[in-house]
Predict the structure of Carboxylic ester hydrolase.
Amino acid sequence: MATQCLLILAGCICTAMAIGAGSKPHFNSSSASSTPHSTIGGGSSPNTNPGKLDYHNDPLVVETQSGLVRGSARVVLGKEVHIFTGIPFAKPPVGPLRFRRPVPVEPWHGVLDATALPNSCYQERYEYFKGFEGEEMWNPNTNVSEDCLYLNIWVPQRVRLRHSGERPKVPILVWIYGGGYMSGTSTLDVYDADIVVATSDIIVASMQYRVGSFGFLYLKPFFGSDSEEAPGNMGMWDQALAIRWLKDNAAAFGGDPDLITLFGESAGGGSVSLHLMSPITKGLVRRGIMQSGTLNAPWSYMTGEKAADIGRVLVEDVGCNSTQLTEAPSKVMACLRSVDSKAISVKQWNSYWGILGFPSAPTIDGVFLPKHPMDLIKELDWEDTEILIGSNQDEGTYFILYDFMDYFEKDSPTFLQRDKYLDIVNLIFKNMTRLERDAIIFQYTDWEHLADGYKNQRMIADVVGDYFFICPTNVFAEQFAEHGTKVYYYYFTQRTSLNLWGQWMGVMHGDEIEYVFGHPLNMSIDYNENERDLSLRIMKIYSRFALTGKPIANEADWPTYTKDHPKYYILNSDTYGTGKGPRTTNCAFWNDFLPKLANHPDPDYACASGVAETANLGVNSATSCLLVGPKHLLYFVTIVLARLLLSL
């Protein structure tokens, strides 16, 4: 499977699955296994064997603060890479530790075998397109288990040799995978970092963290602030513990503990941004790279109230009697810990509420995420922080395919009738007011080509990509820059020549990952030379940023990003240079204009209750109540828009 997936890598990456499949997974009773991975001691203790007395002479043995580990060696592009996989950093979160924060692993005796991939954390598979590698490549490639808290490290041999001679240490890039906080695993072929470290003086590490309810169940309001039961954000605590382990053991692998840079895509990007802000992890790392995901995106965080409601639903759905949450919460937890992993994994999806409406996400818990992300940015000092952040050209196409399969096809574009377009927009934003929904439709309508169904399809993709990804990324970058951070923005516009997905899907969410990890340099895959050059350029950008905080040597070629000067750097094999934005006009609509409509009641309601502010609209009361009827709602919206624009 690994070889097969790697061979078709170029096309597979375009899936956008890195955020976790824009919809509920298609469940299969055999899709998830609870069998622990046997290599790293699928039980409560690591797999070790007695250490040699002269282990210092073994180049593949490293002495960590937890114990000795032995990795493996691989020659990549003519360079030797030392690889350590499946190193435990926490006790298995099973039994009484289920739904609790991670507990640091106990030191082991002997030499731990760190040569096989660890378990993936428990999750469901996506099987909408059976046999299609573009989808399959994002599914777990190791056994799924709740015993999954392990990390992986790739080190260039030359760094190990330098380290033994007390030479300067090197930066560490720590990868956090995406998956919508519902899925994902560090073991995927596409996250194999051997090519990165073979071509750079850099160490790469990655970790597993709990996803879905196992990592984010929030029942804190029912237990009190001092309780350890289901506090939410367990998956974030997993990441934090792994980062702490890597910092404490960086020097043992030849890395610099003060030069740790987090990088992640989608939910991984959201995680990176949270670690830069959280009082639990701020200061652990120096820099962050966020690919197509930030904490302020609508899918990337939730309030404690919402998370508690979702938790209550899960309790009831798995048969643990949610009414006891207020009367006997400890009995509820005992019940939850007796429920089969598979049942929890499936039932949690009952709270999926529509496109990118994942039932698990970082929660405003007062501890790890003390308050709204944008409020945190404004309160903290960011002068010693640098971030590299960016978006892909067609972030929305993958998600509309998965969530609206009755309308769209994987391999070819769809002629979307106007009424279907309106249905989809109203469904996506069903929780917004009617006025807000009509404003969105107004903004994303090509009024000169209303009957062009292909443009309607394009507009839906743009709505989703802008609202859920590009525009939150822009405002996040603006706010960081405003509060002292050096921000560098990229815009990825490369469609890989071997892409397996339909041409209409463009440069999808996740497409940049193969370039970040250097897979075009694998000569067994038929990339073209320009794509290989682009991948090499991106890897140099990342390694230089991790070392210096600057992505390229000449700052004039890649200026910092600010709200007044929103310059981005184009990542494309044929196009170089900078641009402005991206998506400046549409993001001004989402970030600056649409929020102003929140204080305006829906027009029908306003007339019915007799409180229409007709004077502010510039029309008399009789006319206004005629205008705001369903047939004239669009006219009403244009009047409101015009008045608001005049007030900007």
Observations:
- The CA atoms of residues 296 and 644 lie 25 Å apart.
- The first helix runs from residue 2 to 7.
- DSSP finds 25 helices and 17 strands in the chain.
